[in-house]
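Troubleshooting: if your tokenizer reports a length mismatch, compare your output against this known-good record of 199 residues.
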Amino acid sequence: MQVCPTGIDIRQGLQYECIGCAACIDGCNQVMAKVGYPKGLIRYSTTHAMDEKLTRAQMFKRAFRPRVLLYSAILWAIVIAAGVSLWQRVPLKVDVIRDRAAIAREVEGGQIENVYRLQIMNTEEQERYYYVVVSGLPGIHMPSQSQFEVDGASSRLVTVRVRIAPGAAQPGTHPIQFLVSAAGIAGVEVREKSVFIVR
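Known-good structure output:
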């Protein structure tokens, strides 16, 4: 009681004023050692352990039950999976939106052109340059700009034109892919699917 910083009487049991400093435990053990009694009259324990009069070894054995070990393993698996996903996170997101104003059109030389809008999201703090490459059909190419600068922690909506030679594909829809990669940084790239329409 004399060493308690909040002035509570530990003999009345655990009270809400207790701050868990363990000064009473140290003081009690010192007094018990001086008078020749066993230590541990005041100690950290549980209500169940006090009622069942469990020893320290029995308490540790109970703490490592199969259910506790299973829950611990599941928790660690979640923590490790979250850490791996954060470590392998690609700091780039891309959305491909077809231009609805013109589904497909014929341009100079009889080439078929589709227009797309790419929303490039840079989740890093510094600005990056990104290259855009299209694939999926023979001779498919982009006559428009293929390199774009995006500020850090921001997004940019860019318009790209994609063309194929006349007769390179049958009328209908054809799957294509856009590859957006960060300039000079290996592994920072995203592939997004879309369709190329030939009329």
